[in-house]
Structures are given as structure tokens and as C-alpha cells.
Write a structure and sequence with these properties.
Layout (H helix, E strand, L loop, with lengths): L1 H39 L5 H27 L4 H27 L3 H26 L2 H29 L6 H43 L9 H18 L3 E8 L2 H8 L1 H14 L9 E6 L2 E7 L3 H16 L11 E7 L6 H17 L5 E3 L10
Helix pairs in contact: 1-2, 2-3, 3-4, 3-5, 4-5, 4-6, 5-6, 8-9
Length: 377
């Protein structure tokens, strides 16, 4: 399970890097367009235009550097995300907040600037903050940045009103920011809801893993195997497929525990758990039935094929090497599904076959209903 989680994490990191590279490329294109608009806009002061030329060059350079670092994959993506967030906050508050508010002559120009890119860039930063941190911290950062930006705009509008500047579009500017604030609040609530749902899902998956996994071996436990068996029976009834059920028990396991201690016994059980899957198919179900007893479910397998496969498993157990333990053997009982079988009836036949294997020499595979001669291996 841990290996699967790590693979999912790496896959998610690769997806994030790809998305961020695409977003960075689009950001560079947006900066180039903004620079073109700045170059062709002769209504702004020369100083204002120069400031934004420098800003565009620096910001584009930062975007190129982030894309390059994302491609090299030498720095953890979380560090790059938080570095980008800091750069974006400075950019938003400085060049999308303070400087326009100071240098733009009228609320009309501020409104065009706000609905053009300022408010959208601000929301992107807020969303990134919510994504990078836990809900409470992310929401605090996002709301703080938004209120700081809105505060700068509000101060400038109040200043214009005090100076008697025509502020016909002031209400529209405030309306744009209020609507953006409402959207931000909705995103915070949605993020909190998602985080809660994720915690519940994780808790459920953990409880399910504990409920269906044997703690010692990490194999599916009896409850999980019984559910797998019921699904196999349902499939067999619907499609007329056959399958086999095997129960096997380690021979003389109590003596091994008595002579070498339960620690060695546990090592033996874990060694069996590692060895058996090497000779099973991906579709087969293998788990610990209880104590020193294990179960194997073999879908779409007849009795003869199952016995052949299980004999390979039996021989594989001989190769297990434990200190002071000469050889691990097991007695296998296997039976084939018969139409009308329930979980109880098919398990009973497998258990009877296993008992027959133990009472006729051990270390063997016995099929249900098969005549057995006394022999030993």
C-alpha cells in the first residue's frame, strides 16, 4: 500500500509540474501582450511606462526560471510553489495594486485595469495559497492578500473623492472587488469542504485497510477473502465460470513455535506470505485465513490446473531459508466450484481435503474427492 501511495504521489507531482509549465508559458505570453499594450498606450506618463517595462522584464525572467526549474526536477515542487506564491504576492500588491492606484489618473482607468487582469491575477494568487497550505493557513494568507489589495484601491477611491475627482466608476471598481471577494469566500468554503471530505475518505480507507488486512503478514485477512469468494461465486453463477478454492496449513507449526519461539514463527509466516505470490497469477487471491492457515482463490481454474499450480507453491515453500529451521512444508486441500455451492459448502470441502492431506503424510496437495495413498515427501 505504501508503494502504491508513493507512486500516486510521484504521478501527481509530474502532473503538477506539467500544468505549472503550461501556466508559466501562458503567463509569459500574457506579459508580452501587456508589454505591447503598455508600449502602444501613449496616454500614460513616461515614468509609469518605464516602471512597467522593468516589471515585465523581471516577471518574465522569473517565469522562465520557474519553468526551467520545474523541468529539471531537482528542487521539490512544494518549494517552487511557495517561492512562486511569494513572487506573485509581491507582484500583485506592488504592480497590480499600489502603483496603478497611485499613478492611474481616474477611476475609469482603474476599472479597466481591474477587470482586465488585476482582479484575476489576485484570485489566482489566493487560490494558490489555499492549495499550498492547510485550509486555515491558506485562507488566512488568501484573505490577507485580498484585503490588502482591496484596501489600496479603497484608499485611492476615498482620496479621489476628497480631491473632487470625477469618480463615476468608483462604485463599479468596488463592485468588482466585492464580487471577487464573494468568489474567494466560496472557494475557501469549497476548499474546507473538500479537505473535510478528503480526511473522511482517508480515515475510511485506513479503517478499511485495517479491517481487511492481516497485521502480521500484510496479506488480505479472512474477512476480505470471504468477500472475494462471494464475488467469485456470483460471477460463476452468472457466467458459468469455474474456480478453485485452496486451504493450506503449515506442517508442525506448533512444534516450530515451541522449539524456536513465536518470533521465529512470525518470521516463518511472513516468509510464506512473500514466497507464495511468486507462483500465483495477478488474478488469484491469496491471504491469511487464520493462525498458520492460508487460503488461495484461483478464478477460472479447474481442479487439475489448480493442483499443478499449488504443487509449485508447495515446492517453493521448501526453498524458504530461516535460521535453525530445516524446511517449511504445508498440507494443501483444494476443491472446485460446483453449481449451487455457497461459501460455506466450498470452504468445507477444501477444509476436508486439507485435513486429508495432513492425515495421509502432510506436505502434499490433495484435491476434493481424490483417492489418496499413504506417502510422504
Amino acid at each position: 500500500m505504501l508503494q502504491h501511495v508513493e507512486q500516486e504521489r510521484l504521478h501527481f507531482d509530474q502532473q503538477r509540474r506539467f500544468i505549472y509549465r503550461m501556466a508559466g508559458t501562458l503567463g509569459i505570453l500574457a506579459i508580452l501582450y501587456a508589454q505591447y499594450a503598455n508600449f502602444t498606450d501613449t496616454h500614460q506618463s513616461y515614468f509609469y511606462r518605464v516602471v512597467y517595462v522593468v516589471n515585465h522584464v523581471v516577471f518574465a525572467g522569473i517565469c522562465v526560471a520557474l519553468i526551467w526549474l520545474l523541468a529539471r526536477q531537482r528542487i521539490p515542487i512544494k518549494h517552487l510553489e511557495r517561492l512562486a506564491l511569494i513572487v506573485f504576492i509581491v507582484q500583485s500588491l506592488g504592480f497590480n495594486g499600489i502603483i496603478p492606484a497611485v499613478f492611474l489618473p481616474t477611476p475609469d482607468a482603474m476599472l479597466l485595469d481591474a477587470i482586465g487582469d488585476d482582479i484575476w491575477f489576485l484570485l489566482i494568487i489566493c487560490i494558490l495559497a489555499i492549495h499550498l497550505y492547510d485550509v486555515r493557513r491558506g485562507a488566512l494568507i488568501a484573505v490577507s492578500v485580498f484585503l490588502a489589495s482591496f484596501g489600496v484601491v479603497t484608499v485611492q477611491i476615498v482620496r479621489w473623492n476628497m480631491l473632487g475627482v470625477d469618480a463615476a466608476n468608483s462604485e463599479r471598481v468596488v463592485s468588482v472587488y466585492l464580487m471577487a471577494g464573494a468568489l474567494l469566500g466560496f472557494l475557501v468554503v469549497l476548499s474546507a469542504y473538500r479537505a473535510q471530505a478528503e480526511r473522511l475518505r482517508t480515515a475510511y480507507e485506513l479503517m478499511r485497510e485495517i479491517a481487511y488486512t492481516d497485521a502480521l503478514t500484510g496479506l488480505p485477512n479472512r474477512r476480505r477473502l470471504y468477500e472475494d469468494l462471494r464475488r467469485l461465486i456470483a460471477t460463476a453463477e452468472r457466467y458459468g465460470q469455474t474456480f478453485c478454492v485452496c486451504l493450506f496449513d503449515l506442517d508442525h507449526f506448533k512444534q516450530l513455535n515451541d522449539q524456536h519461539g513465536h518470533l521465529v514463527g512470525d518470521q516463518a509466516l511472513r516468509a510464506v506470505a512473500r514466497a507464495v505470490p511468486q507462483h500465483l497469477r495477478a488474478a488469484d487471491h491469496f491471504g491469511r485465513w487464520g493462525g498458520e492457515e492460508f487460503a488461495i482463490l484461483l478464478p477460472q481454474t479447474d481442479l487439475s490446473s489448480a493442483q499443478t499450480a499449488l504443487d509449485r507453491v508447495r515446492l517453493e515453500l521448501h526453498a524458504i531459508n530461516l535460521p535453525d529451521v530445516s524446511m517449511i512444508t504445508a498440507s494443501f486441500g483444494v476443491t472446485e466450484y460446483v453449481p449451487g455451492d455457497t461459501g460455506e459448502t466450498i470452504l468445507h470441502r477444501a477444509d476436508q481435503a486439507m485435513y486429508l492431506a495432513k492425515t495421509t503424510g502432510r506436505n502434499r496437495v490433495v484435491g476434493d474427492g481424490e483417492p489418496v495413498e499413504m506417502w510422504s515427501v
